[in-house]
Amino acid sequence: EDEAGVREVARNSLERAGWKVLAAADGVEALELLDAHGGALDALVTDVVMPPLNGRELASAVQARRPGLPVLYVSGYPESVITRNGLLAPGLSLLRKPFEAPDLLAALAAALQKEPGQRAG
Prior knowledge:
disordered C terminus; 5 helices; mainly alpha
């Protein structure tokens, strides 16, 4: 998440729920954290629109390193705009901004329950 305030709210919400969080300001930093992190990951939560890598590009790079990793996309744009502009395929896990902690936790739980073929890639 490239917006610091949103990133901190998400981080705090997830940590209070018991998740260990690796937070990054952009896709490049996220890949650096991933490469430095030797442990398991449960999911990737990423903004759809952010420089220099968008969420789909980041998810592809992460899934190349961690195949099958569930992805939850977050965006302030309507889903129709995101899919129409080719940023995401329809049917992927998407949480709309602004969101509250329960929304984030519910969306993450739903993304973790999807079949691998339904996950982003």
